[in-house]
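U., I forgot to send this yesterday:
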Amino acid sequence: MSGGKAPRRVLSHALLFALLCSTALVSTSGNAAAFEIFGIKLWGSSEDEDADIVDPLRYAVTIEAPDADEDLVKKLENASALKADEERPVSGSLGLMAKARGDRDQLIAALYADARYEGVVTITIEGKPLDDLPPDAEFSGPQPIPVVINVATGPKFTLGDIRLEGDAAGLASADFGLIAGGDAGSGAVLKAEVSIVRALKEEGRPLAKVTDREIIADHATSTLDVTLTVAAGPVAGYGDTTVEGTEKVDRDFTEYMTGLERGRQYSPEEVDEARDRLLGLEVFNSVTLKEADSLDADGNIPIGVEVSERKPRYFGLGGTFSNTEGLGLEGYWGHRNLFGRAEKLRIEGAISGIGSNDLTELNYNAGIMFEKPGVVGPASKFFAGVNTVLEHPDAYDRFSVKGNTGLSYELDKQQTVSAEVALDYSKITDSFGKHTYLIASVPLRYVYDNRDSRLNPTNGFRLLAYAEPSYDILNGAAFVKLRGEGSAYQSLDTASKFILAERVAIGSIIGAGLQDVPADRRFYSGGGGSVRGYAYQGIGPKDIDGQPIGGLSFFETSLEMRIAVTDTIGVVPFVDAGTVSTEQFPDFSDMKVGAGVGLRYITPFGPLRVDAAVPLNRGPDDPRFGIYAGIGQAF
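Result:
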């Protein structure tokens, strides 16, 4: 590509390519004899992987961009398929030239994304320019064949004259990030187009689209003039919803769960929520919702749904470890589509305390859970379960059988409420003696969650409010357990390399004294899930033998700085604090504080976590340090 010397130049095909391909994925496939897990090769060799390549030719690529800063060099390297696949040979000389030509287009797109519209990309193979090589060129020199990519970036452009025409003429371009003197990268222009069309669609206009685009680069002033013409189309309601791709999942049920009622005014947000709701059923690998290209005879927009189903059965194993709590193992089996309408059945069991408890005092947990979505509307879910627990923490020994049933409802994409009824029969031995309970309760829950990711959030927050009125049928005690929790996440840089995470939790039990509340329902603190550095349940009041007795109130807070060292490795320094009180309001004068550092390894199913912490105001019965391992962030 050449920058050209004309004072003004219309960028048509090249810029359009950059707008549509500003992010590109290049992949190769083949039968691999090697085995990798989490990116670590356990056996096999690169020669095994390359056995299927005809006439393999190895090369070594060098990217030279003397005018580029470190950030742009990284973007260019990420855009280069030659660089990404350098360890894997190509198929002969023709394969190398084809890969180099594709690379040039991607590198130009990367320059355009950085608003470099005078950039020049030159690729040489064995010292010869790519464009001078004949189609049947052969590279017979010693391997790896040298490939040099030279990038002259040119100046960075800014936005110049901006015009919105057609049905977008009344909109302010600044509202969509198009500001004179602002970012002129192809990604910014493309994002503005999407935002403008989205704004018109939010008026109920499903056919809104950009009908014309004029992009002109003024090389004399290094500015980019942008003219966008938009057609809004008419306001319309939903037409028929058709579903394709279902096999074992009921097709009518899938249509029902979209919640797109025929005739109701179209909303792109509702279409997004419908897609998320179908994915949330966990029976589909992928879900695509697409509006038709035209309205039906009634002036409504038909919606097409395409899905691909997941395997209905699944099973898994997991584990946690702590030097203060021992080893925990769990296993589960589940069915995602029991009767054809995304009903879930899950059977699970767990053993914990291995290594920290005597063999006769290991902790056991087994349960069965059933869920049925869509019982009173697409946003609802019925659930029921039975759970049995035999556990021996320091605070008590407990055997329990509990049954529960309830309903949850999504008020919107961020808000969920749930209510259930539960009956719990338990035998508990604690500092106050042996007791038998039969507790009837009505747990109520409200959750607000706008985090950008459930597994590894970088922005947003989550709030929980919980109330559980309870009555002990055998002993006549009545009490209410209240709990609130909030966690917030903030990215401190554009690349989300530094994430500040905070958590606060508080709770109180009202209506009964400490001895009237079963030991397993009191509040405890300490351990891997609360205040690291202390033993499990190790914070709070204790009996004369130094064993925890729990409390009627608690308070916890945590602060973490999640630092990404690489794309998969992270380091997390943290501070935790907490207190437990026998009064109905926490005693903040008796806070226990722990601090430490953790290591994270990012995987598709969540971070693998190892934390090490020490108590900062250690008591005589507290450990000197704590080490915790598990899956997922601490909060």
